[in-house]
Amino acid sequence: MNPNQTVEDESHPYITSASRRIQLLSLHLTPPPPSQPSPQLNMLICAKAANKLEVDKVSLSTYMRGKNRDIQEKIIEFFESRPDLQTPVGVSMNEHRELCMRQLVALVREAKIKPFRYIVDDPAKYFAITEAIGSIDVSLGIKLGVQFSLWGGSVLNLGTEKHRDKYFDGIDNLDYPGCFAMTELHHGSNVQGLQTRATFDPVTDEFIIDTPNDGAIKWWIGNAAVHGKFATVFAKLILPTHDSKKVSDMGVHAFIVPIRDLNTLQTLPGIEIHDCGHKVGLNGVDNGALRFRSVRIPRDILLNRFGDVSRDGKYTSSLPTINKRFAAMLGELVGGRVGLAYASVGFLKISVTIAVRYSLLRQQFGPPEQPEVSILDYQSQQHKLMPMLASSYAFHFATHYLVQKYSEMKKMHDEQLVADVHALSAGLKAYVTSYTAKSLSTCREACGGHGYAAVNRFGSLRNDHDIFQTFEGDNTVLMQQVAADLLKQYKDKFQGGSLSVTWNYLRESMNTYLSQPNPIIARWESADHLRDPKFQLDAFRYRTSRLLQSVAARLRKHSKTLGSFGAWNRCLNHLLLLAEAHTESVILAKFIEAVHNCPDASSRAALKLVCDLYALDHIWNDIGTYRNVDYVAPNKAKAIHKLTEYLCFQVRNIAGELVDGFDLPASVTRAPIAMQSEAYAQYTHHIGF
Fold first, then answer.
1. Contact 467, 280 (CB under 8 A)
2. Residues 6+ apart with CB under 8 A from 81
């Protein structure tokens, strides 16, 4: 073969793909002498230089990190200064569990950072702490959440002053490590179906906690296998009566149950604890199973904010029905869901940062007889990573909005705000964690074989994050809750009811978005029009409103023959699409708002570019929906596609600055393949060279 012949040379049509591959490999083994860059490469370099935005990384990261930057930096610096508290690759399950406990104790007692104190008073600071902790070790972040948000949060949110007075300090300083015992072997999502029983004994003034069958064993309970001393146990409250039934089921309530001796850590009488063993991920968290055999507890450790039992066995509550009490109880526990949505964005930022930095550093192939080019210059790599980078920013602002609404809810206790946060957290938790789970695999693939090395983190990130799609509410179940809430709002609209804050655009959508698309606007193709936030948001909301109207009609039709449950199941995929579309609309609205509010001009221009990519990429990915109803004419669809490709290229030009805007310390990303000039030196050193 002529060494000067290139794979682009069409004068030899007989050259096979195998011979072209051999030719490329030979160029790697015997590089041609240096020469001047080709015209094509010069054009590429000039295009980048001419169109690249200037981004002030300090201003961008300041805007992104917000007011809790200092406490996050304090946490990172503390763990960076303590090699003995850093989690090694390949740590065993038992070692990891003990290390996580030491890490948590060190955070609270040595670094003097007390997350529990912010649970109610400053939730935004609490979630900022959990984000920083999760970047150190995800198992540590989950263990912290179990201790303070779940176990501690249940005492604060479901108990009364007597419980806070008795348990607050012990939870805060880790003298009282505890568990959140809700999930059972046979019941996870269906909390009202829990079978554990708490029967009141008026003779001894005690509740008797009992596991009636194997299906009622509390399962996957964090902190239970090794470290927990208490558990908030969710059980049906059973009261004796004098009628023919002899007992009355008052619904699911929460009880504080000691499970280990405070000094010896020995399991208490009537308690059986089993280890759930090695998991796919999060092996620093000691998940266990709990069985109760007629365990007696004092009446006053019923967490009685929403319902109480007197000494003579009388039940009282400010809420009249089991369903209302259950809804109020779950509404107070929504913080865990908020935290998972927020934490999942952290996973996405880390993985995107590693993949983008690697893609900027890694060079493969290029024009004939020229230097190899960055793999991020390939359109395929840009289309993998740039929309994902845009989504990282979009989710950041959406989850910060969620935290803001949650903080307002904790202060105001407004019933409508509670319902709004419940639905918003369900949608964002489900949507963000599902997207991040897929993106972790994509980032691994985008880094080729090097992404498969454990030291480069994708495996542990993917495995640790995977369960985020299940706990604190299965994602499919949560999306159904969002759809159900939208249908309720749809019904209220036609019955004259008020619409809640998050869904208020539906009032306008029923009148505007569902009218016949304007044939003139449907043909507008200019970049200014396509990059107009009003066009983008209207398109998202139009899709949501069409889905809402059509699924409501289908449910009415099928309920006549299948009943309400059968109709819901028949339309389930349609309902999930509706919930997804609505959540995307909320995310885009918050992104547009964040762009508008950004004080720095260069950062605002960069965020506008990223926001446009996020919006138009989603519109293009569902272009069939818009074409089917002539919301977008054929030529406009082509214009959207071309502009999306252009925006991908423009975002690629500032991709390095954008991932720097996350301001993640090297100890957080800590993947050798993403470490600039030290990349391969550290990587090869890791395996012994």
1. yes
2. none
For residue 655, CA distances in Å to 173, 544, 606 come to 42, 31, 10
* Neighbouring C-beta atoms of residue 151, cutoff 10 Å: 27
Residue 196 annotated as lining a ligand binding site = no
Q: Where are the domains of the chain?
A: 59-169, 178-320, 334-674
Number of Cβ atoms within 10 Å of the Cβ of 661? 29
**pLDDT tens readout for residues 393-407:** 999 999 999 999 999
SS3 1: coil
Q: Looking at the DSSP assignment, which residues form a beta bridge with residue 274?
A: 289
The four Cα atoms 665, 670, 676, 677 give a dihedral, to 10 degrees, of: 120
Residue 257: CA atoms inside 13 Å, Cβ hemisphere, count?
A: 36
Name the band, by pLDDT with cuts 50, 70 and 90, for residue 657.
very high
Beta pairing class for 218-221 and 295-298:
unpaired
Whole-number Å distance between alpha carbons of 603 and 63: 9
Q: Does the CA dihedral 359-362-364-368 come out positive or negative?
A: positive
Q: Whole-angstrom Cα distance, residue 308 to residue 302?
A: 7
Q: Domain 178-320 sits in which CATH superfamily?
A: Butyryl-CoA Dehydrogenase, subunit A, domain 2 (2.40.110.10)
Of 295 and 664, more confident: 295
Taking a C-beta distance cutoff of 8 angstroms, is the pair 367, 40 a contact? yes
User: What SS3 state is found at 17?
Assistant: helix
| Residue 183 annotated as part of some ligand binding site | yes
Give residue 341's Cα distance to chain centre: 3
CATH class of 59-169: mainly alpha
Residue range 82-105, pLDDT digits in tens: 999 999 988 999 999 999 999 999
CB 191 within 8 A of CB 281: no
> How many Cβ atoms are within 10 Å of 406's Cβ, its own excluded?
23
Question: The tokens of 434 are what?
Answer: 């599902």
Q: What is the CATH code for 334-674? A: 1.20.140.10
Beta bridge mates, 297: 207
Specify whether 472 is catalytic. Answer: yes
Range 168-186 burial, b when 16+ CB lie within 10 A, else e: bebbbebebbbbbbbbbbe
Global pTM reads 0.86
Structure tokens at 610: 């990223």
pLDDT in tens, 166-185: 999 999 999 999 999 999 99
CA distance readout (Å), 530 to 323, 438, 516, 518: 47, 28, 20, 15
Instruction: Exactly one of 131, 184, 332, 472 is catalytic; name it.
Output: 472
CA distance 53 to 75: 33
